[in-house]
Design goal:
InterPro entries: ACP-like_sf, PP-bd_ACP
CATH superfamily: ACP-like
Radius of gyration: 11 Å
CATH class: Mainly Alpha
Largest sheet: none
Number of strands: 0
Shape: globular
Distance between the termini: 12 Å
Number of domains: 1
Protein name: Acyl carrier protein
Pfam families: PP-binding
CATH topology: Non-ribosomal Peptide Synthetase Peptidyl Carrier Protein, Chain A
CATH architecture: Orthogonal Bundle
Strand content: under 5%
Helix content: 55-70%
Organism: Promethearchaeum syntrophicum
Length: about 80
């Protein structure tokens, strides 16, 4: 499974959503289950799965699927 597929699987699992809901424009306003707790769960999974150390600024700036992808790309993750 490549890194992009791993990201999608994490989003599906953490947010308990359908794949059609995963768009770059999707935000917590669009995904009801995207709460502060699920956001931190996702960040912890990123750190564990991809070996990242995210700082507070990065975590708070990941406020859309597109922003998540951009941050991961900045860390060399191919999503």
């Amino acid at each position: 499974m490549n890194q992009s597929e791993q990201l999608i699987n994490m989003l599906l699992e953490v947010f308990n959503i359908k794949s059609e809901e995963i768009t770059d424009d999707a935000t917590p306003d669009d995904i009801e289950s995207w709460t502060s707790i699920s956001h931190m769960d996702l960040m912890a999974r990123f750190e564990e799965k991809f070996g990242l150390e995210l700082d507070v600024e990065e975590i708070t700036e990941m406020d859309s699927i597109g922003a998540i992808k951009e941050t991961l790309k900045n860390h060399g993750i191919e999503v």
